[in-house]
Amino acid sequence: MEPIRQSLHQVVKNCIEKQGSSERNCPHCGKVLKPIELFSEVIGKFQVTPVCKCEAEREMADIKRFERAKRNGEIHEYSDDDQMVRRATLAEYETAPGTIRGFQVIQDFTRGIKEWGTKGIYLFGENGLGKSHLLSAATKELRNHGISVVYTTAKLLIAHTRKPIGKWEYLNAYRAADVLIIDELGAEIPADWEMGELFTVLNGRQNRSPILYGSNFTVKELEARFNERQKGWGTRLMERIIESSVLEELTGDSRRFDLHIENTEQINRRLMKHD
To answer: Model's pTM, two decimal places?
Structure first.
């Protein structure tokens, strides 16, 4: 009985130390909180000031934020962030007539993800138009709002799920993330036995959580490429994407040559300083 009595005394002591036993005002709403008297057959009478409802709600919200941050951190360990575009942000994306709608759709997704529900985006177009930039920027933007995002490429996704060790951890992360981003879909065609791993991931999120895709190919071109490897695989993939995604095309001229010009001009300015 004595150990129980000591434990109860400690509990009461901790409670009083935390909440106090004198009248006070709630720091959030200003409500006057008066101490109440309680009685225990083990420790007798004692006074403690109750916590205000808004204090309790804020503390619970803090606990939930902490738990979510911890969960997101565990999920993000399975993201291939080294494949993302460094320093990519939505604010720094330079739009053009053929890319502005794609930018607006990605931006709307990051700002209103709850309204999007389980619907994702299939972003496609030629190389150099900024698909990876937009998807990388979306990853950062969503994470800044407490949303878990796993970014990977189709090639790495399949490689991770083919590992003898760690496969289930990756599959769980791909399934549990609030948003999964698969870039470079169709850049390489998986072998027959690898296609099953891709569909395992897609099926695990079907009608549950959104996927954002990046690809150089239209869904019809993607269908044809995958069907060349194994008849029917491409059609199944195309149907999954169409059913669960908004299709957005980026068009225009590649910006990569512009970057080459900028880099050349930059080094020229540096060399001129030495003349």
So the answer is: 0.75
